[in-house]
Design a protein that fits this description.
This protein has helices at residues 8-16, 80-83, 156-163, and strands spanning 38-47, 50-63, 69-78, 88-97, 103-112, 115-124, 129-136, 141-147, 154-155, 176-183, 186-201, 207-216, 228-234, 241-247, 252-261. With 264 residues, the chain is mainly beta. The chain has a single domain (8-258), classed as YmcC-like fold (Beta Barrel), CATH 2.40.360. The protein has a 15-stranded mixed beta sheet with strand order 8-7-6-5-4-3-2-1-15-14-13-12-11-10-9. The radius of gyration is 18 Å and the shape is globular.
């Protein structure tokens, strides 16, 4: 395998693709997931004529020491055979209110080859602000600030779990919803379109009836900005992300569910 494969931006997007689904702010109690749930995924990169297994992704729901909160975690790990020339370890953690699913705090710790980053976000619901601190490459570059008028904003991980409480039956075909999501200290309006229901298979060839969505992308090193991320969510009570696919500037990525345990 050539070492000219796209670098950290690809792997970073790989670990984020499962989290990019979310909807507008509506308060409701958490019903579709509970502490003890674990979802696992395998990510593939389409490079030339080959589909290459690239990373494993794990999502966990955990109890919090405060009974009013939940902790959710996501880990993205590149396969060991790639570590010699490009090691990737992505760790996301969010604390959310159990009754509204809105985020309280979010962290990201990443190693991507010679690049490293630590991100910390605090969501102040009463003041509608987000305080953030970002440190890159062991503090060589630092960025901190406050985002005002941030009512209903999400980090990527809390957004994905919030989505799972949405009533898909209320969606109209081709309905579009725009959501503000904070990434790298900046707010991006992500547009999501419901495109209908269809069967979808996971990595184990198990078939699910799913609601399918098309999410907009943010122009940058990986996306041109006109691509769509396709997401399939199971139509059962758990609303599990079963599959995510997207074309990139170079190649294509495919993330498939490999396991689900502790389903509520």
């Amino acid at each position: 395998m050539s070492h000219t494969m796209p670098r950290y931006s690809f792997f970073r997007k790989l670990t984020l693709l499962c989290f990019i689904i979310t909807f507008a702010n509506t308060a409701f109690a958490q019903k579709s997931f509970a502490p003890g749930e674990v979802l696992t995924y395998k990510a593939y990169y389409h490079w030339g004529v080959l589909w290459l297994p690239a990373a494993n992704i794990t999502l966990k729901v955990l109890p919090n020491e405060n009974p009013n909160f939940l902790t959710i975690k996501a880990n993205g790990i590149s396969f060991k055979r790639y570590d010699l020339f490009f090691k990737v370890r992505e760790n996301f953690e969010s604390t959310i209110f159990k009754n509204t699913l809105l985020p309280i705090e979010a962290r990201r710790n990443a190693i991507e080859g010679s690049y490293s980053a630590q991100e910390h976000y605090r969501f102040n619901d009463s003041a509608n602000t987000i305080d953030y601190n970002i440190s890159v490459n062991e503090g060589k570059t630092k960025n901190s600030g406050k985002i005002e008028k941030a009512d209903g904003y999400f980090d990527m991980l809390s957004a994905a779990y919030y989505m799972r409480e949405y009533d898909f039956a209320k969606l109209k075909l081709n309905q579009k919803i725009r959501v503000n999501t904070i990434i790298n200290g900046k707010v991006y309006p992500i547009e999501i379109q419901y495109v209908g229901n269809e069967a979808c298979k996971d990595n184990n060839n198990k078939s699910y009836m799913c609601a399918k969505f098309a999410a907009s992308t943010v122009p940058g090193t990986i996306f041109k900005g006109n691509e769509k991320i396709s997401i399939w969510m199971s139509l059962d009570s758990a609303k599990i992300p079963v599959k995510v696919t997207s074309k990139l500037k170079i190649g294509e990525v495919n993330v498939e569910l490999t396991g689900a345990s502790g389903i509520k």
